[in-house]
Design brief:
This protein is about 80% helix and about 0% strand. With about 220 residues, it is mostly helical. It has one domain.
Length: about 220
């Protein structure tokens, strides 16, 4: 089934899986990362989709954490780390998809590159903003912990922030001098480029998710 036709995620299912992971998992970071990667790789990968996935996962995580009592802070810390890991992988996938589009899409231009890089650089702030918004609907313990975790991440940096910054720097160096210094020929051309990157990103991320899953399974089998 193509990425264009693949069914979009069910956010309620994602939320429930996230809740269960926080309540029962022995490795919350790993399970949140895996869940997030799987959800992001279904359908296509764009800013709207990423926002929906972050929100669904963090809402489920927050519900699960509310039942953890004194362990809530550790659970939320691990979940945030897992989300950060997954978003960093999505930034890697987007970088590869942009490179692929630049080499294969006829109308790809410097205008499209700028838009794609802006979306990459906005990933970290999207992460923070969505977590802050989710925190508003939680109990005081979870709300305070999520707020502290976001502040700490803003001050110390994140995997997704570093990965996105490295990716945009690399793409600028590789592509800026080779692309047409004009906007795409039409609104439709730009839309086609955006759709191509969104679908390619999801496909690449699916491969990354599968590789990480196999790596984790092999490690578990050896232990």
């Amino acid at each position: 089934m193509s990425k264009e036709n693949k069914q979009e995620i069910d956010t309620e299912v994602v939320k429930e899986i996230a809740r269960t992971a926080v309540e029962r998992s022995d490795d919350i970071r790993h399970d949140v990362r895996s869940l997030t990667l799987k959800a992001l790789s279904e359908g296509h990968l764009d800013t709207k989709k990423i926002n929906k996935v972050i929100r669904a996962v963090m809402e489920g995580v927050s519900i699960g954490a509310e039942a953890k009592g004194e362990q809530a802070k550790d659970a939320l810390t691990d979940a945030m780390s897992g989300m950060d890991d997954a978003l960093a992988k999505s930034a890697e996938a987007s970088k590869l998809a942009i490179e692929e589009a630049a080499g294969h899409v006829k109308d790809f231009s410097s205008h499209d590159l700028k838009g794609a890089l802006d979306d990459l650089l906005a990933l970290e702030e999207l992460f923070f903003d969505t977590v802050r918004d989710v925190a508003k609907g939680t109990n005081e313990t979870v709300k305070e912990t999520l707020g502290d975790l976001v502040k700490h991440a803003e001050q110390n940096g994140t995997n997704v922030g570093k990965t996105a910054l490295d990716a945009t720097s690399s793409l600028n160096q590789k592509l800026s001098n080779t692309l047409k210094d004009t906007a795409s020929a039409s609104i439709q051309a730009t839309a086609n480029v955006v759709a191509h990157i969104a679908n390619a990103s999801a496909g690449i991320l699916e491969g990354i998710a599968d590789a990480l899953q196999s790596e984790s399974k092999n490690k578990s089998d050896k232990e």
